[in-house]
Every structure is written in C-alpha cells, then in structure tokens.
Amino acid sequence: MTIYDEGLDRTAANFQPMTPISYLRRAALTYPDHPAVIHGNQRQTYAHLWSDCCRLASALTRRGIGRGDTVSVLLSNTPPMINAHFGVPMADGAVLHSINTRSDPASIAFQLDHAESRVLIVDREFSDAAKTALASAKTAPLVIDFDDPEYPDDAPYPKGDPIGIMDYAAFLAEGDPDFVPGKPQDEWDAIALNYTSGTTGNPKGVVCHHRGAALMAMNSAIHAGLGKHPVYLWTLPMFHCNGWCFPWAVPVQAGTQVCLRWVRAHAIYDAIADHGVTHLSGAPIVMSTLLNAPDDQKRSFAGSVAFNTAAAPPPETVLHAMADAGFDVTHVYGLTETYGPAVVNEWNDSWNELPPDQRAARKARQGVRYLSLDDLAVMDPTTMQPVPADGQTLGEVMFRGNAVMKGYLKNTAATADAFAGGWFHSGDLAVMHPDGYIQLKDRSKDIIISGGENISSIEVEEQLYRHPDVSMCAVVAMPSEKWGETPCAFVELRDGRDPSEADVIAHCRTGLAGYKCPSRVVFGPLPKTSTGKIQKFALRSQASEMGQQKG
C-alpha cells in the first residue's frame, strides 16, 4: 500500500458504474425540447424519448423483468428499437437481445431458447417468422406486437397478423413516465446479447457489458466526428452489433436519430435533404444503392455527409464516386465481439498528395485502434509474439481492452479459446505495416460477409449436403459489387445425377435465409490434398476470378 491508497477508497461519491443510460438522461435534462427521433411524420423530443424509455422500463419491471433477464426484440430501425437500447437495461439490469430481422425461424428459435428470453417484442413485418419460431422454441416469452403507424400502405412486405398479448403502444402505456431507473450494480453487468455466426451452424451469443457500451458510444462519437446536435440516418440495421453502438452514441452529442425501415435510395436522399443528415453508416451495398440510383430518385443537399463503412475496403473508384456525390467515406473494422468497429483507417491529410496507387494502398488498410481499445496487434497465435511490422508477415489480429466482450453466453470453452494468452483472438489474418496500421489478408474462420451480415460457410455446406444429388461441396466467398461478398458453392455430384444450378439454389432456400443461399453453384471435381481435404484456397481464387469477370 502506498500513500495514494491509504484512506482513498472508492465510495458512492467518487465512483459510479459507467453506462450509456447516463448519456440519454443528460441529453434529456440539457436539451429536453431538441428533436431526438424522427420517424416518418412522428417527432420525439429528448424529454419524450426519456419518458418513453422510462415507460418501457417500468412496464417490463411490473411484469417481473429485472437483472439478468433477456428481452429479445425483432424490430426494424424504428422508435421502439431506440427505446429498447435504453429502456431494457433501465429495467433494473435486464439485457437486450436484438435479433437479425433476416434470420430464418430455426435460427430465431435457437436464439430465444439459448438466451432464455422472457419477453419478445416483434414488428408485425416479421410476425410470420416469429410465429413459426415460437412454435418450435422451448421457451415461451411474453410476446408484444409493434404495429407501426408509419407503415406504408404500398409496402413491399405486408404486415403479418398480431401474435402477442398486446400492442407495443398499449404496453408502453402501462409504464410510468416518472419511473426512476436503477443503475447497473457493476459496470461489468451485461447490457446486450448479440449472436454471431461462427464456423459451426449455431451462432455464439456475444455478451457485452455497460462499461464497454459506454466507452464505445463515446468512441463512436469521436471517431465518427459527431459534432454538437448531429443528425444520424439509420441505414445500418440497429440489430447489427447494436447499430455499432450509435443508438447510445448519438445522445452523447444530443443528436437526432432519423429512422429508416428499408434501405431505399429515394428515401435516403429524401431524408438527407429534408432533415439535414450529417452522418450515416452501412455496408458496401448502401454505397451501391446511393451511387446506382436513377437520377429521379436523387436529390441535392448542402454540405458533405459522413459515411462510415465496414467490411471490405471500398475501391478507389467507389470512394471518388462517393465524394463526387457528397459523401465523405471512412473505413472501419471490427467484430461483434468488439462491439462492432474498434479499428479505424485514420486518414493522414499528407496522404492526399501521394500518387493514386499509393493513396489507394493506404485506403485498403483497416487502420489503427479506437481510443478505448488498449491494444491492437498482429501476432503469431502459437508463440503469441507480434509478427514483424513489415507489411508482409501474416499473423492473427488480436484485441485487448474495454472494447472486448465479456465472453460467449453458456460457452466457457469457446470463451477460453477466444481469450487464450490474455488477448481476444479474432480469427482474421493480417499484416502489420511499419506505421502501425493493420491490413486484413484472409479470414481464417471462413466467414462470408454479405451486405454487412456474417454467413457461416459450414451452415451453407450442411444445407447443400442435404440435397440427394450432392456428394461433396465447399462454400467460399465470391466478390460482389453490390453485396461485397456472396456465397459461391462448388459441388461434386453423385454418379448419374444432373441437377441444375437453379435446382440446387432452390433447395438451399428451403432451409436457409435467402441472403445465405449461394449466388452461384459450380459443378465439378473439387481440388483436394493427398489426405482428401478440400483445398479452399484454390476455390477462393476461382471464385475471385468469377466475381471479377461478373463485375
């Protein structure tokens, strides 16, 4: 003990658990009349948003929901989704579980059971999938419907029938707007659960804590350049890594969140022009949607809009086209296990003077760590020593710090493996450049990232093997101008069998969500090692050529 320890203990006066809930409370107190949420014709001030979050927390508490209970939501980018990011953890420490709205019923059922969900809030757009999932799930959560009053009459997806005990508006009305939310007992308490595809069919449940969410919200505000009162457009699904923590980050600067149910060019351009949008995020498909829109769907707008994109780095031509269209693109990288992006391609202004090929090379790099990430390294996973920073030597990307998950729910073995040696092992292979910027080279987990969503190649292969004509198969990523990547299947057929490509894809659709199905099926002998192992590296090369030819 030193002189700086004696009599200098933590007390309620000098130490409180970090939580992003405090950001919303501060914004509501400081800017009660400032617009917090825009959804179609609806407008919510910060005072209104705080009141709704208190109502949700109160209604959940009255139903017996509290610390450690899972509240699952199957919602679009609508006000209830923003409410849930605050109101659920405000319910005496309940945990928010956001379900990918593109999931198939079997995946939804697995997650509900694994998470032991006590409540499920469902947008009626997804009620059919939810109903099928609930029929096979072992758990029986309290089901609440959300009937969106802004749902258009000419919507491309009709609303399903109600499946819950009441509508969300009625449930909210049960709550007390003056409810006093409890704080987390410990900043290490869980705040959110997100499922991520791994190398097996069933996803792993990534558990995030209040401290990480609070720090990553501030990180997002800093690295995304959220100035005072930003206007953030929801083109990124809020179910994806909790919307990269932006539901918690925007209130840091008392900004406005503009909801968007579907990513459509016309609606995006209208929102930017009508509401003065300053920031948005998304996968490469969002950029494609903006750039390839017909002229009659585009609108001019003042200033430049900051666009954060993850997944593969955008090509130089796309970056130029985005700049010409009024968008300033920043490339970020991360995983669900790191609360979304935790690495940013921090751009040096001096690089603007470099020749085009050198400038493009720097833009292809993933970058450097976020502020709250203690360390980012490229290491030999066997020796746990950093690889030379030569831009050539491959190693595994590893993370350490407060931007890393608590671990995997009910999976101590996977958690121990992920944290072996005191680092989080990403499974991504990269090089470290002399200036400390990392650059990805491959994905050791064989995960395909399509439209910003992770697809397990093994899950697709398992469905292919259920086809009676398939003898052997392998699935790899194929480049896609629109989606970034799509699954490409290589199939060896049983003797005498001759299905068409369309037949095999149709079979996949009977057991997989549409976005997980192969966009191409190639028939023929698979390259193998002397021991019979399929050489996926050769198939990746072939798929890459196919994708480039198609582009």
Q: Note the main sheet.
A: 9 strands, mixed
- How many distinct helices? 17
Q: In CATH, what is the class of the domain at 23-34 and 44-209?
A: Alpha Beta
Residue stretches low in confidence (pLDDT < 50, at least 5 long) are: none
Query: How many beta-strand runs?
Result: 27
Structural category is: alpha/beta
How would you state the average pLDDT, rounded?
92
SSE topology:
Layout: H1 21-30, E1 35-39, E2 42-45, H2 46-62, E3 70-74, H3 79-90, E4 95-98, H4 105-115, E5 117-123, H5 127-136, E6 142-146, E7 166-167, H6 168-173, E8 190-196, E9 204-209, H7 210-223, E10 231-233, H8 241-244, H9 246-249, E11 256-258, H10 265-275, E12 279-282, H11 284-291, E13 305-309, H12 316-325, E14 327-335, E15 340-344, H13 356-363, E16 368-369, E17 373-380, E18 385-386, E19 395-401, E20 407-408, H14 412-418, E21 424-432, E22 438-443, E23 447-450, E24 453-456, H15 457-464, E25 470-480, E26 484-493, H16 501-509, E27 520-523, H17 536-550
Parallel strand pairs: 1-11, 3-4, 3-5, 4-8, 5-6, 6-7, 10-11, 10-12, 12-13, 13-14, 26-27
Antiparallel strand pairs: 1-2, 8-9, 9-20, 14-15, 15-16, 17-18, 17-19, 19-21, 21-22, 23-24, 25-26
Helix pairs in contact: 1-2, 2-3, 4-5
Protein name: Acyl-CoA synthetase
Keywords: Fatty acid metabolism, Ligase, Lipid metabolism
Family: Belongs to the ATP-dependent AMP-binding enzyme family.
